[in-house]
Write the structure tokens for this entry.
Amino acid sequence: MFNTIAKALDPVIFAKPILPFNLDEMQEKVLRSSAKRLLLNCHRQWGKSLISAMKGLHRAIYYPGSLILLLSPSLRQSSELFRKVSECCMMVKELPEKVEDSKLFLKFANGSRIISLPGREGTVRGYSGASLIIVDEASRVEDSLYLSIRPMLSVSLGDLMLISTPQGKRGFFYEIWKDNNIWKKYKVTADKCPHISKEFLKEEKESMPERWYLQEYFCKFLDIEGMAFDPDLIDKMFSDSVKPIFGESLLSGNVKPLKD
Ligand SMILES: Nc1ncnc2c1ncn2[C@@H]1O[C@H](COP(=O)(O)OP(=O)(O)OP(=O)(O)O)[C@@H](O)[C@H]1O
Ligand SMILES: [Mg+2]
């Protein structure tokens, strides 16, 4: 009983038995943060998706009836994030019974729901009363989408967390980082990250253009103009709505080859 209360009050105590490694200081700080508006500008592989999954799961388990929306820029990323939630679920002893469980949606007997949404306006509209919205890779999410999710917090007075590596000086993630003082903001660069080695960083520095290295590992917002290709344009060349010619989604891991 005491242990359950401790886990409910402290997401770090909840997370410890689930993870095969120790959380670093900043990860603990973020998990424990009760900021209503939280922005994290952090490097690649810091654990953005993992922390999003853990924060969402903690809210769902210990705050019955909560609606948790996890938003990612694409179907592939929302599936990946949801996979992290499902993996964490397997390690949680006090998990409430699952009453609905699909590839992007989980409902518990305590009334809480976790929904992982791909970044398209049509898919996110229609939810209301969100207790927590987490936008993973927020710098790659369209402004229109961000604006359309905010009203879902209005009645519930829910929390909003943006977590991302930068992607140029544009968009809501950059604007909030630059100017907005309502938000609690943190930056985490890779040289301060205990689970990224100096050797690996050195190799990365030598393997990519400096601007790219600074963006990916040192969280710098760079001018898009200097880049050979606008990353957004490249992203838009891919579509989640086109059916793969193999018949099954590549995400299902059940791809059947075409017949001769
Ligand atoms: N404190 C930690 N100690 C050791 N490994 C960790 C720690 N935190 C996260 N990891 C591991 O780092 C890897 C990256 O985690 P995750 O995918 O959540 O990061 P990310 O920031 O979302 O990455 P990306 O920028 O590629 O989206 C995973 O294998 C995860 O298990
Ligand atoms: Mg990620």
User: Anything to note?
Assistant: Confidence is low (pLDDT under 50) at residues 248-260. The CA atoms of residues 214 and 220 lie 6 Å apart.
